[in-house]
Specification:
2 copies of one chain form a homodimer. Helices cover 48% and strands 12% of the residues of chain A. The first copy, chain A, starts with 10 loop residues before the first strand and ends in a 15-residue tail after the last helix. In chain A, strand 4 (74-77), helix 4 and strand 5 form a beta-alpha-beta unit. Chain A has helices at residues 21-32, 46-54, 65-69, 84-91, 109-118, 163-175, 185-211, 216-222, 225-231, 238-247, 249-271, 275-291; strands at residues 11-17, 36-42, 60-61, 74-77, 100-103, 126-127, 129-131, 152-155, 179-182. The first copy, chain A, has 2 domains: 11-183, NAD(P)-binding Rossmann-like Domain (Rossmann fold), CATH 3.40.50.720; 188-291, 6-phosphogluconate dehydrogenase C-terminal fold (Orthogonal Bundle), CATH 1.10.3660. Chain A has 306 residues and is of the alpha/beta class. In chain A, the strands form 2 sheets. A 6-stranded parallel β-sheet of chain A has the order 3-2-1-4-5-6. A 3-stranded mixed β-sheet of chain A has the order 7-8-9, covered by helices on one side. The first copy, chain A, contains 12 helices and 9 strands. At the A-B interface, helix 7, helix 8, helix 9, helix 10 and helix 11 of A face helix 7, helix 8, helix 9, helix 10 and helix 11 of B.
Chain lengths: 306, 306
């Protein structure tokens, strides 16, 4: 009798396009789960490629996207979302028709649009993916095999996505410990504008508001553990977040507008000295936040959610 | 020869006015450091008094502020800042002239004004104190002797403050592991409006902005570890934070204004599609936050900074 547990797909060759924290962690997780034979890596930076090789994250450093993907049955695009279009264009002709192609971008509508504009008949191979994991530090040296464990991964398949590819994508993320959800690219981007992109933007703006004050050093010296946690995500990578916020501009602007409304309620209650209104506003936030907990595991202490 | 290490003051009797997280933790810390003989506690709630007694945080539950402070050589006011005025008025006639009187309020100008309006000649006994510690959960059952360890405590003495009282206050906080700073009440309130009160208000407003959206439950389900840490302080106690924000209204409104300016810079960069400007704004925040670390110890994972 066959086992009823879904068997994780095994891949001959992973092509890792972008050898940073996210891609490196995926490679390490696959290797640890014995799901992959050979890992070929490409990074725009020669130095990064060599570091990935030296750290044994990849088995082979390739000089081009085309070389990396040529014989791969699994391709992971782990580049900033602004570099997706160019990467798709570079791999389209070189990739194998049976390969599974995924990205790990934090926005999905723009990545899907880039795929639709470039991939042609290979579009069916593509399963857009967003693992809700990360750290506020970037780079291959911070990669770890457990980054995606007990984290959520959102897949946003297209009408053209091949069902077998979608199933394989689901199984590989589950096999490395992730909890998989599926939604449309549009729902993804509006959801994460609210729960991730806006909080990052607010944390960036809060730090900048401090820096703009002449006594900012003295202020920062007095900041405590509340500030530490509130502002942790403000240490995130600037290039990564420039791309995320730009790519999801419309939804982020909508969320800023929602936030401004909520902020104005506090400002009005304060200006009018309406302590009853003020308490109600705080009470609502406090009750909702006290009743909330991270759905897909709560193991990591320093994880970000790019 | 005398030891050169400052000896921690020993107290016969601590009067704890307010038996919650902050006061209870102070009592436990003093007891553990063997700095106090007897602890008399008063709380407006009979139930809370009895719980503090049952948990051995206090040795005696008193029926009034006057009864608690009558024979005390150390008095700690650990009530919401809105209840300070009434507490000062209730203890003035009953307290001993040699006692050291401190509070643990998160705002100082309003507490100082209340003291000046009520304490009369006992004003010299009063050393306003703000330990930068706490949790986002309230109540005596969460009190712990290590709450103030490796945390900063700010003292804001008045011109009338007796120097021996100030020295004793300094020594007792140091003896329970705290790092003591001194500043004026005004500097305290403008500093903490920036590094604590504004972040709390922004976290409250961010949660309320989510709640105001029809699909808020689905949004919250997708929130990740970045949101978890960013919004942790939004779970703080509503009555406590109503009082803090109200008491420090002017400085908090100034900080909201600074924040609005920083937020507008992001909004403009996004609207204009100015990715270079956007990256610079993020880069500034990221560099400052990456270079920052908690000055006075970083032991607690769940500490707040009321």
């Amino acid at each position: 009798m066959m086992s009823e547990r879904p068997s994780a797909p095994r891949f001959q060759r992973l092509a890792l396009i972008g050898c940073g924290l996210m891609g490196g962690s995926f490679a390490l997780a696959l290797r640890k789960a014995q799901l992959v034979g050979h890992i070929a890596g490409f990074s725009a930076s020669e130095k990064t490629r060599q570091r990935a090789l030296a750290l044994n994250v990849i088995d082979q450093a390739c000089n081009s996207v085309a070389e990396a993907v040529a014989q791969a049955d699994l391709i992971l695009l782990a580049v900033p979302v602004g570099a997706m279009h160019g990467s798709f264009a570079a791999l389209r002709e070189a990739m194998q028709p049976h390969a599974l192609l995924m990205d790990v971008g934090s926005t999905k509508c723009d990545v899907v649009a880039a795929a639709q504009a470039t991939l042609g008949e290979r579009l069916s191979c593509f399963v857009p993916a967003h693992p809700i994991a990360g750290k506020e530090v970037a780079g291959i040296e911070h990669a770890e095999s457990t980054l995606y464990q007990d984290r959520r991964t959102v897949l946003t398949p297209l009408p053209q996505t091949n069902m077998q590819r979608l199933r394989a994508a689901h199984d590989v993320w589950v096999a490395i410990g992730s909890h998989v959800s599926t939604m449309t690219p549009e729902a993804h981007d509006s959801t994460f504008a609210a729960v991730s992109h806006l909080p990052h933007l607010l944390a960036f703006a809060a730090v900048n508001a401090l820096v703009a004050q002449p006594q900012s050093n003295a202020l920062l010296e007095m900041a405590g553990p509340g500030f530490r946690d509130f502002s942790r995500i403000a240490a995130s990578d600037a290039a990564v977040w420039r791309d995320i916020l730009s790519a999801n501009q419309t939804e982020v602007l909508k969320q800023i507008s929602h936030f401004r409304t909520a902020l104005a309620q506090f400002e009005n209650a304060l200006k009018q000295g309406d302590t009853s209104d003020l308490q109600q506003l705080i009470q609502q936030a406090s009750e909702v936040r006290s009743g909330w907990s991270l759905q897909a595991g709560d193991a990591g202490q320093i994880a970000s959610d790019t």
